Amino acid sequence: MSPERFLARQDKLRSLLREAEVDAMLVTGVSNVSYLTGFSGDSSALLIGTSVRVLISDSRYQTQIAEECPGLEADIRTQKTKPHDQTAAVIAQARPGKLAVESHILTVSERTRIQEAIDKTDAGKGIEIKPLADTVEKLRQIKDDDEIAATRLAIRIAERAFVAMKATLTDDLTERQVAHELEHAMRRLGADRAAFEPIIAVGDHSAMPHYRPGERRIGESSFLLVDWGAALPSGYRSDLTRVFATGTVPSQLQELHGVVLKAQLAGIAAIRPGAKLKDVDSAARRVIEEAGYGEFFGHGLGHGIGLHIHEEPRLSSIAEGELQPGNIVTVEPGIYLPDFGGVRIEDDVLVTPDGHEVLSSLPKDLV
Amino acid sequence: MSPERFLARQDKLRSLLREAEVDAMLVTGVSNVSYLTGFSGDSSALLIGTSVRVLISDSRYQTQIAEECPGLEADIRTQKTKPHDQTAAVIAQARPGKLAVESHILTVSERTRIQEAIDKTDAGKGIEIKPLADTVEKLRQIKDDDEIAATRLAIRIAERAFVAMKATLTDDLTERQVAHELEHAMRRLGADRAAFEPIIAVGDHSAMPHYRPGERRIGESSFLLVDWGAALPSGYRSDLTRVFATGTVPSQLQELHGVVLKAQLAGIAAIRPGAKLKDVDSAARRVIEEAGYGEFFGHGLGHGIGLHIHEEPRLSSIAEGELQPGNIVTVEPGIYLPDFGGVRIEDDVLVTPDGHEVLSSLPKDLV
Question: Which superfamily does B3-139 belong to?
Answer without folding.
Answer: Creatinase/prolidase N-terminal domain (3.40.350.10)
